[in-house]
Structure formats: C-alpha cells, structure tokens
Design brief:
The chain has 290 residues and is an all-alpha fold. It contains eight helices and no strands. It has helices at 2-35, 38-51, 60-63, 67-132, 136-204, 211-236, 240-276, 282-287. α2 (38-51) runs antiparallel to α6 (211-236).
Amino acid sequence: MARTARQLIILANLMMKKNFKKFIFNAASIVAVMAMILPVVSLAAAKANNGNGNSASGAGAAGKTGVCLQAGNLSSKIDQRMSDRETEIQERRTERNQSFGEKRESRDQQLEQLRERWNENREEFYAKLEENADNSAKKQAVVSFKAAVEAVVKARRAAIDKAIDEYRVAVDKLVANRKTAIDAAKNTYRNAVRVAFQKANSECAKENADAAKIREQLKAELGLAKDKYQADIQAAEKVGKSIQDLIKTRRDSVAKAVEEFKIAMEKARTELKTAWGTENSSSDENNSSQ
C-alpha cells in the first residue's frame, strides 16, 4: 500500500511542478516580448524632442520640422512593431497550449498504465486466495474481501480523478483569465498610443502650433500609457498564490483519498483474517492494495 500512495502522490506532484514552472516561464516570455515594444515609444518621443531642439519658440515652420513632421511616421512604425510582436506572442501561446495538452495526455497514460498493473496484481492475489480457500466459509470470505477491495479501489480512483479534473479546470480558468487581462492591457496600451499620436497630429495641424508643448504633451501621455500597461501586466501576473492554493487543495484531496483507502483496506484485511485465521502473510495482503 505504501508504494501505491507514493506513486500516486509523486505523479501528482510532478504534474503540478511542471505545469507551474511552464506557466510562469510563458508569463515571463510574454512580458519580455512586450517590454521590447515599450522602449520604442520613449525612443520615438526622444527623437521628436531632438528633431525640434533648435526651435526656440516651438511655433511656425521651424517647429514643425520636429515632432509635428515625425509623429505620423513614428506612430505607424510603433503600431506595425506591436502587430509583429502580437503575432509572435500568439504563436508562442499556440505552442504552449499544444505542449500542455501533450503533457497532460502523457501523464494520464502513465497513471492508466499504473492502474492496469495494479489491477493485474489484485487479480493474481484473488486467484491465490481462491486457490487456497478449502472450505465454504473461506470461499465466501474471499468473495466478500474481493468486493470490498474493488469498492475501495473504485472510490479512491474516483476521488483522485476528481481532484485532478478540478485542479486542471481551475488552472485552465486562471490561464484564460490571465490571457484576457494581458490582451486587454495590450489593447488599452495600443489604443492609448494611437490616441496620443492622433492628438499630436491634430494639434500640429493647427495654425501657429506650439511644437514644444505638443512634444511634452505627447511624451507625458505616452508615459502614462506605458505606466498603466506595466501596472496592468503586473496585476495580471499575480497568479502565483492562486496556483499554489490549487496545488495544495489537490495534494490534500489526493492524500485524503489515500488515507481513506488505507483505512478501508485495513478493515477488509481484518475481516479476511478473521475468517481465515492468521494464515495469510502480510506480503500477500499488500498485493490486494495495489
């Protein structure tokens, strides 16, 4: 029985650790990719600033050789770069989801193979008991013992499967919510950048536009957009505690199922011993718990 419990818990913990590490790694990857975009905005504002550095009043044709002439071009470049990065992020998400699915399927197959082997072990033990049952009382005891063992095995597996399913559903929900929040943050940031440049272009189109003032307003609005984006991403990434809580819940559920299985198995073995006396060896009894 001890070996069975260890195998189940080790398999469960392996799944949790790999999923959690993979989850955090992909989260960091997305933030890193988006971080490559943010400096471009600051660079755009800096270029606009440099281009207008020779304008004392910030007005008239001289002023419009700086931020007012560069704003449209810079906006287009930034927007295109963000589109390219978005494509890369989506490709990584697709690869990650496929990898998650394959790993889950592999772990399910491993668990199923273990269970099939335990089924074979139990059937061999039942056959041995039936072979040694030399009277009707013992034969009836074997029938009762087998029914009791199969019932507790079924209950244990159902409880463990339920814990696995609930854990996966909850993790998938966290991942989906995180994706929604990150996508919303990106869209909000992207729209804010567009609005900032559109506003700059509109101001530049006015007669006697103050390029210096426009430049400062553009920089300020881009800075606010960047700060909000980073804050939104940080909020979306605060899933570590939730994941750990799910892992603990799942681990506790598995441990509870195993403990209840032990108690029920001990009861079944005691009843079998009572009917058979003390003829069964402890090693034979252990086979029934597989």
